[in-house]
Amino acid sequence: MHLRQINEITAHQIVGGSDYQWHCYPDARMLDYESDCAYINVVYSTRNQEIYDATVSINADAWGKEDKDMRPYRWLNPKYKEAYHQECKTRKIKKNIAWDDVKWIDLEVAEDFLEKAIAIFNGESHDTRVQVPIELEDDVMLHLCMEAHKHDITLNQMVEKVLREVIKTHE
């Protein structure tokens, strides 16, 4: 994910910024974005504008609390996630806590973060499911495609169905 993508989805509504004081990300700065509906914060590289860390949370006062997804979402760059977790440990900070007793919903797929962030930032509804990257061997993929066809559903729906069944058996 790159800074230009965040700038595009927020229409450059930057409200603040500063140097990033932790050492887990090289040459890092922070930028804050705000709309009437949400807050977005990113930590990015000043060398190539690669995003290290991106968060989005709603402005609860603007949305109200009835049937809104109040959870804060976070995407951590996989190349730097371990360094971030290590620095959290060194600083004795709980890596999964956004604030108070509120936990981050960590997103693994950058596009998932961008989809949720643009919707939340604009006060629109969004898919609260978390996308999970998976790699399948060709023969497994072919089998899943054939099963999806038999059930007249998409491949994504078939994979989701299988994953839900596996999770259910392990609960």
Please tag this protein with its features.
six-stranded mixed β-sheet; two-stranded antiparallel sheet; 8 strands; alpha+beta; single chain; 36% helix; globular
Q: Can you walk me through this structure?
A:
This protein is an alpha+beta fold and 171 residues long. It folds into two domains: 3-121, no CATH class; 138-170. It contains six helices and eight strands, in the order αββββαβαβββααα. The chain has a six-stranded mixed beta sheet. A two-stranded antiparallel sheet has the order 6-7. Helix 5 crosses helix 6 (155-170).
In short:
The protein is of the alpha+beta class and 171 residues long. It has two domains: 3-121, no CATH class; 138-170. It is 36% helix and 24% strand.
The secondary structure category is alpha+beta
Strand order of the largest sheet: 1-2-3-4-5-8
Cα Rg: 18 Å
The residue fraction in helices comes out at: 25-40%
Write the layout of secondary structure elements.
Elements lengths: L2 H7 L4 E6 L8 E7 L3 E8 L5 E8 L1 H4 L9 E4 L4 H10 L6 E3 L2 E2 L1 E3 L2 H12 L16 H13 L4 H16 L1
Parallel strand pairs: 5-8
Antiparallel strand pairs: 1-2, 2-3, 3-4, 4-5, 6-7
Helix pairs in contact: 5-6
